[in-house]
Structures are given as C-alpha cells and as structure tokens.
Amino acid sequence: MLVLGSQSILGTFTEDELPEKAHASIEADVTFFNDYENDKSDVVDMHLGEDSQFHATFGYYAQGVNVEVAVLPTGWQDRVVVLTSPSTNGASGHCLEPHDLVVAKLVAGRMKDLEFADALLHAKLIAPDTLVARAQMLEQSFDTRRVVGWVIGWTAKHGPCKPAADGHCAGGSS
Questions:
Q1: Which residues contact 117 (CB under 8 A, 6 or more apart)?
Q2: How far is it, in rounded angstroms, from Cα 149 to Cα 174?
Q3: Are 103 and 133 in contact (CB under 8 A)?
Q4: CB of 93 closer than 8 Å to CB of 4
C-alpha cells in the first residue's frame, strides 16, 4: 500500500514531532502498486472510506486513489519511506518522502496544501533547497516554476535554512 496524501508524513514523523496543520486531516489517500484497474482502491473506499462503519468507529477514513492523482518528482519510488511496526501485523505501508510529498502538494496548490508546506517549513522538518532540487525533477516545466516560485517567495519572507545530512532543516530563521 502507498499513502499519497498529507498523512504519508506520518511515515517519517510522529504526530508529536509535527505541527497541527501537518497531521490534522482525517483522510488518508491510499493506493496500491500494480492496481491499474483501481480494484483494490475501490475496496478501500467501500470498507474504509468516508461515511463507512470504519469512519464512524475511528473518526478517520481512507480514500482509495490512483497514483496518477499526484504529480511527483522523478525517482520518488526510490525514496519512499517504508512503515512497519508490530501494529501493522506484518504488513508494510509505503509513504512518500517528505520533500516529494510537499512538492506534490505545492503542485496541487490548494490553500490547505500551501498551509501544509508552510507548517513543515516553519517546523524545519523540510528544507527549501531540497524542495527546489525535487521541483527540478518534475516532468512539466510549469509545475517546476510553480513550486520553485512558491519556495523562493517563502524563503524571501522567512529566511533560508541549512539542510542537515538527512535533508531536513538544521537551522536558520523561521
């Protein structure tokens, strides 16, 4: 399973490490590798989707989507974060690497996506320079320009950061 939406950030950071705007969604967009006909995604919607018994019981839900709903940098598959724990009962989830996730959110450009990116940058959990580098890996130049322009504007307003070895912000102003 691949988590595409904002909740894939939980593959890298715990809720305690994240600002509220980065984990507030009650929806997890999920897809499956090799589910070209969306059969598995349809089953997710039916059993775990919005207004399902699962949603009523737990207060959150999954939405089955196609991987093509996200515009992602080239090579994203090699950077996914694999999430396993005793609570997954032997199964593993694949989550987008945070910079790839934020680039996809900035391409989408909805207000909630911009707030998500802003919150992660303010928390110094992602680095502007890495976002720009990942934007250069997008297939469409207009997507690259949109992401780079937003990051440049954010950095001009809030200041740069120094990327740590793991690609996250190590310092700088917020």
A1: 102, 105, 106, 126, 131, 150, 154
A2: 18
A3: no
A4: no
Could you tell me the pTM of the whole model?
0.85
Q: Which residue has the tokens 């996914």?
A: 80
CA distances from 143 to 39, 44, 105, 170 (A): 30, 30, 11, 27
pLDDT tens by residue, 152-172: 999 999 877 766 666 666 654
| CA-wise closest residue to 138 among 169, 98, 100, 109 | 100
For residue 62, which of 72, 70, 52 has the smallest C-alpha distance? 52
The Cα–Cα gap between 72 and 67 comes to: 9
Report residue 86 as tokens.
């005793």
